[in-house]
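Data deposition worksheet. Section B asks for the primary sequence of the deposited chain exactly as it was used as input, without tags or linkers unless they were present during the calculation. Section C holds the resulting structure in token form. Section D is free text for depositor observations; keep each observation to a single sentence. Incomplete worksheets are returned to the depositor.
Section A, Depositor: J.P.
Section B:
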Amino acid sequence: MNLRRALIALFALVGFPAAAECTDTSYVDRLSPGQTSALAAAVADMPYAQGLIWRARKGDQIITLAGTMHVYDPRLEPIRDQLRPDVTTADLILLEATPAEERQLQDLMTTQPDVLFITDGPTLPELLDEPTWQLIADAVRDRNIPAFLAAKMQPWYLSMVLSIPACLSNDMMAGNLGLDAMIIEDAMAADVPMQALEPYTTLFDIFQNDPIDEQIAMLRVALGAPDLQDEIFVATLDSYFARDVGRLWELSRIAIADVPGLTQAEATRLFAESEKALLIDRNLAWIPVIDAALAQHDNIVVAVGAAHLVGAYGLPQLLENDGWALTRLD
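Section C:
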């Protein structure tokens, strides 16, 4: 999984505030006519390429599928309002992570710091050349993180930290959160039970097992494209609120090839590996969890990052394959 987290730095829908504060320029403005045509062709026949909210029915059972954005943006409020009646009357809410998993993660960081931090052996200033470390030190200071703390971060973890554009750090520290957090708030207010679709260590298990040299290489890539990173956040949000989720995903496929230090072949392989690990494999693993929930409940909400909705291995298509009838709600 060489350099996979470089892809995270570009397009993963992680918990950051609105990208509009960073730049008014969208990655779409960079596209050549050929790339624009390729994007349109890729989305044209993609299953469930559009839509954020779906209702799936089979017999008397109902699933409300919500494609979330793990970032705050005021345009999320109407989507929250639309979902609230389904959330507050559901038997169960399934999410990528609930407050229980967040607490487990905090405990893990306390009891097993080596998961995220270098606790033995050389730290990053010793593993990197001096110019690269100085670039990193400047980058983390821009994100209100002390350089001495970054020096002890596992390289894959620091790459994820650097995927947060510096212009977002203040809002992030203020606790502005995305649609997932809004759904959790509404579920808690209505006393609706919540359950995670996967163990809280799932993403760590994907990321942390690469050899240290590959993690270092990924770190260099994550450091090298801040302008591109900001523009992709803008394009991601624009596509999301236009309900063009398939376009959002395919833009990411194009964008990875623009990362400094990656050849086209490396970018293609990286995207395919990441798509399998981050979307396809997880979606397939979630279906038995959803089935188990439906063995006990007739009305559930499944709220996951919007990219999990699109394509032949998206949750709507997987449910359709299993006999569910789907209707787009938004």
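Section D:
Residues 4-114+164-328 form one domain.
Residues 1-20 have pLDDT under 50 and may be disordered.
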